[in-house]
Write a structure and sequence with these properties.
110 residues, mainly alpha, 2 helices, 78% helix, rod-shaped
Amino acid sequence: MIEKPVIRQPELIHRNILSLSFSNHIASMIETILMIIVAIAIAAILFFFLRNGLKLLINAVCGVVILFIVSYFNLAPIGDLSVAQVIVCAVGGILGAALLIILSFFGIVI
């Protein structure tokens, strides 16, 4: 027995296409909104870390520069610069350089 193909009415086909198109449009819009929210969150997190990271970097560079200036002009008896002194200044920044200078006056040289 041969079955006859079902002929749909053009009006029903048109309604189905419109409903699919509308749902795809809403899904696309929701995806776009979610991507914007994620991008804003990532930008805020990066700003927070880079802002603090930049302060730490500037502090570390200032500490190492102070150590080199003190060593070059022989303002404190810190002797020749060592890797340990540079690491202390890079981690401690200005406070690390001050600590090394104060310790050198008490005869403790790293």
